[in-house]
């Protein structure tokens, strides 16, 4: 049957209250924007919840649309719009795509309708340009960089990085918690995250939001020469499964590259493409594109220097 109406129909998830787990995060030897005191110092009302925490909200909606395939070849490509602090409620939305379509619009809002993020969700590597593909294509070369002046597009990390995520593994100063800590408070729990015997892949799988943690866990090893101390935040983020899902307790190899550089009135930004491979480095299984937006006014003497 062919529908006569052109009105898009959307799925809507329940309101959830994500938990703040980065209050004790450290990088570059100082507190991050997720620390309340640091956030207030920079003009924000409180330390925000990390953006990819909201990715979990979409899993039930996108599984409803694409089934198990979502966990194996799904891509969520998001531009963050407004910060969320602990105690605020958020819900996810997804347009139901036309029959056979491989991409759709998704978004998240606070309970009062304030937008949290806009995004595209897709299946496979041939679904057309993602939201971040489009945003990167529209970037203009930065006029002048200070914090990032030693970076260049195409710069790669110093060496391959070996990573894994075990259930009780503490994920370091950047992520001062374990997978089990996260699963105790995750907004959308699943047996697939905790019990390999109930997973279609025979092992527990890493939730999409925790792929961000896996990908950033060893990022200091890349040695990208970003000046500091300065405080940054995630402005855009895309996580793409190519031959997934990623498995708990599995070894992986990571390679990084600077994909773009940009600036705005308030920030200098570097976009990093992180490719995740099997442990032997022969087969790519996932990828993350992340726009690190560094706040100019958090870098001492920025105004005088430029």
Write a concise synopsis of the structure shown.
It is built from seven helices and twelve strands.
Characterization of the model:
A ten-stranded antiparallel sheet has the order 1-5-6-7-4-9-12-11-10-8, with helices on both faces. The chain has a two-stranded antiparallel sheet with strand order 2-3. With 306 residues, the protein is of the alpha+beta class. The protein has a single domain, classed as Hotdog Thioesterase (Thiol Ester Dehydrase, Chain A). A hairpin with a 4-residue loop joins β6 (103-110) and β7. The chain has helices at residues 36-41, 59-66, 69-73, 131-137, 179-183, 208-217, 302-305; strands at 10-12, 26-27, 30-31, 74-80, 90-95, 103-110, 115-123, 161-163, 232-241, 252-263, 267-278, 284-295. It has seven helices and twelve strands. Mean pLDDT is 91; it is low at 30-36.
CATH architecture: Roll
Our measurement of the CA-to-CA distance between the termini, rounded to an integer number of angstroms, reads 62 Å
Order of SSEs, N→C?
EEEHHHEEEEHEHHEEEEH
Unreliable stretches covering 5 or more consecutive residues: 30-36
Question: Which helices and strands occur, and which strands form pairs?
Answer:
Elements: E1 10-12, E2 26-27, E3 30-31, H1 36-41, H2 59-66, H3 69-73, E4 74-80, E5 90-95, E6 103-110, E7 115-123, H4 131-137, E8 161-163, H5 179-183, H6 208-217, E9 232-241, E10 252-263, E11 267-278, E12 284-295, H7 302-305
Antiparallel strand pairs: 1-5, 2-3, 4-7, 4-9, 5-6, 6-7, 8-10, 9-12, 10-11, 11-12
């Amino acid at each position: 049957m062919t529908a006569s109406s052109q009105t898009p129909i959307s799925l809507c998830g329940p309101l959830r209250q994500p938990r703040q787990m980065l209050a004790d995060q450290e990088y570059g030897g100082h507190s991050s924007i997720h620390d309340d005191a640091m956030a207030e110092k920079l003009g924000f009302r409180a330390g925000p919840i990390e953006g990819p925490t909201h990715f979990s909200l979409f899993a039930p909606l996108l599984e409803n649309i694409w089934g198990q395939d979502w966990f194996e070849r799904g891509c969520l490509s998001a531009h963050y719009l407004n910060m969320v602090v602990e105690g605020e409620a958020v819900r996810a939305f997804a347009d139901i795509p036309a029959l056979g379509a491989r991409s759709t619009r998704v978004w998240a809002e606070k309970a009062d309708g304030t937008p949290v993020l806009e995004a595209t969700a897709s299946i496979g590597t041939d679904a057309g340009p993602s939201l971040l593909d489009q945003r990167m294509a529209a970037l203009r070369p930065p006029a002048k960089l200070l914090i990032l002046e030693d970076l260049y597009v195409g710069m790669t990390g110093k060496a391959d990085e070996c990573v894994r995520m075990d259930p009780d593994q503490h994920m370091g100063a950047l992520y001062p918690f374990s997978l089990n800590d996260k699963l105790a408070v995750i907004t959308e729990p699943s047996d697939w995250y905790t019990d390999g015997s109930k997973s279609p892949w025979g092992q527990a799988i890493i939730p999409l939001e925790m792929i961000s943690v896996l990908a950033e866990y060893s990022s200091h090893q890349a040695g990208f020469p970003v000046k500091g101390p300065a405080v940054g935040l995630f402005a855009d983020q895309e996580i793409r499964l190519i031959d997934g899902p990623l498995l708990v307790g599995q070894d992986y190899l990571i390679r990084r590259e600077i994909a773009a550089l940009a600036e705005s009135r308030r920030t200098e930004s570097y976009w990093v493409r992180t490719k995740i491979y099997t442990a032997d480095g022969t087969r790519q299984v996932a990828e993350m594109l992340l726009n690190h937006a560094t706040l100019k006014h958090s870098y001492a003497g920025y105004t005088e220097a430029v």
